[in-house]
Specification:
By secondary structure, the chain is an alpha/beta fold. It has a single domain, classed as Alpha-Beta Barrel (TIM Barrel), CATH 3.20.20. The chain has helices spanning about 45, 75-85, 145-150, 170-185, 205-215, 230-235, 245-260, 275-290, 315-330, 350-360, 400-410; strands at about 5, 70-75, 100-105, 140, 160-165, 195-200, 220-225, 265-270, 290-295, 340, 345-350. The strands form two sheets. It has an eight-stranded mixed beta sheet. Helix 5 runs parallel beside helix 7 (about 245-260), helix 8 packs parallel to helix 9 and helix 9 (about 315-330) crosses helix 11. It is globular, with a radius of gyration of 21 Å. The protein starts with a strand and ends in a 7-residue tail after the last helix. The structure holds iron/sulfur cluster (SF4). The site of iron/sulfur cluster has 8 residues, from loops.
Length: about 425
């Protein structure tokens, strides 16, 4: 079988300091600083008693301690534009197909993940409602207003899916149940299916079951780090954060049992210090369990403990994107692929002509996530520019065009043959 194979070590195209991948030693988060007592646990916001009034746009600077879930949720800027709550345009897309919701509290998330804009250490200088997350602002909106808009005509809604992102907070299970119940009371989950992006640290099997009983369609776990060592460094003891790799796996396996094949999965961030071989073996493990991987390209989120580190070089990202797509949707196994001594992909394990067709279809390079209504391998969750600026797109929130595919092939170091 003829394979596309890099004849030499992959050449650097985009990385800082000539690197074509982000190695473990470089990707060390900085240590969190101590939070002043008067800013801890949202104290600064809770010292006020201003009632929330409708939509809160980040940096409105209204200190409204009662603006919290389940009455309020935050939603992505893309979802707010699609819903008509905010004005604005997104490069290359008319709308987003996923209504991404985030639980909200004045205390914010109590975890401290190093790559995340919502992390606890940020309370020192930024109120929770004003924090950036995956590169964008998240306005806070009454849940009832969102449901009113979508319930007018769910079948014609631009949204193909709704997703509730839990955060680490003592109320996050109960409020997730309430938000989900409010939604499914008014909106048929077969018209707009619901995904849960869970917080395993505080969850039990019964909690997972309850989300299923209340109408959730897919349950995902934000593993984020691809190895136990990286997990501990970025989300556990390394940054005074409560998460444990083993607990995330326990809850994912409960979800596998309760939700069944193709209805569970894990989020993984690529480029935090794992090798390409490590992340692709994890992708294979998830597929063998019957689940899916949803990939993010590491981007140094402003204000996070990793904001001084390099974004994932595009060549590393493209290799992993392509290989992951082959494993997840085209039946190629990681054992058929080849890697160099630094774990980089050197051969994708399928015939050159077949690989060329898959590259030119472009789907492998679109944002990955829970499916929408177009086809199984096209994600509803398109997260426009959540992991890159539009000037150097990592995950394409739209179907890549010819000029995009030419660029992708260059980044892959695979000869450009497109006319
Ligand atoms: S638990 Fe989630 S929201 Fe909280 S800091 Fe970690 S990644 Fe961010």
């Amino acid at each position: 079988m003829s394979c596309i194979e890099h004849k030499t070590t992959p050449s650097p195209t985009n990385g800082e300091a000539g690197r074509d991948h982000n190695p473990f030693d470089v990707m060390e988060p900085r240590a969190p600083l101590k939070t002043p007592v008067d800013r801890k646990n949202g104290k600064h916001v809770k010292a006020n008693d201003i009632p929330p009034q409708g939509v809160y746009l980040p940096n409105n600077n209204i200190l409204a301690p009662h603006m919290k879930s389940p009455e309020y949720v935050q939603l992505s800027t893309a979802a707010a534009i699609t819903l008509g709550i905010m004005s604005g345009r997104m490069y290359g897309c008319e709308c987003t197909r996923c209504l991404n919701l985030l639980l909200t509290y004045p205390e914010g998330c109590r975890a401290n993940c190093a790559y995340c804009g919502l992390a606890r250490h940020r309370e020192a200088d930024r109120d929770y409602a004003d924090r950036n997350f995956i590169r964008v602002d998240w306005p806070a909106v009454p849940m009832a207003d969102i449901i009113d808009i979508v319930a007018r005509d769910p079948d014609k809604s631009p949204f193909h899916r709704m997703c509730i992102s839990m955060i680490t907070h003592p109320r996050s299970e109960d409020d997730t149940f309430t938000v989900l119940e409010q939604w499914t009371d008014r909106i048929d989950p077969t018209a707009i299916p619901v995904s849960i992006l869970s917080n395993p640290t505080t969850m039990s099997r019964d909690d997972v079951q309850r989300t299923k009983d209340l109408g959730a369609d897919i349950f995902t776990v934000a593993l984020d780090a691809a190895t136990p060592e990286l997990f501990d460094r970025t989300r556990g003891k390394g940054v005074q954060s409560p998460h444990k790799w083993s607990k995330y796996w326990d809850i994912m396996l409960e979800a596998r049992d309760i939700f069944g094949p193709q209805k569970f999965g894990a989020h993984i961030i690529v480029g935090m210090g794992e090798t390409e071989s490590e992340v692709l073996h994890l992708v294979q493990e998830l597929v063998d369990l019957g689940g899916h991987s949803h990939m993010f390209c590491f981007f140094p989120e402003q204000g996070s403990l990793m904001d001084h580190l390099p974004a994932t070089p595009r060549d590393q990202w493209r290799r992993v994107q392509l290989a992951r797509y082959l494993i997840d949707y085209r039946g190629v196994r990681v054992g058929q692929m080849r890697f160099d001594d630094q774990g980089r992909v050197t051969a994708y394990g399928i015939a050159e002509a077949e690989l060329a067709v898959i590259i030119d279809e472009g789907i492998a390079f679109r944002t990955s996530g829970c499916p929408g209504k177009f086809q199984d391998d096209i994600s509803a969750c398109d997260r426009p520019y959540g992991d890159s600026p539009p000037s150097d797109i990592a995950s394409y929130p739209f179907q890549p065009k010819k000029k995009d595919l030419k660029r992708i092939r260059k980044q892959l170091d695979i000869p450009v043959t497109l006319e």
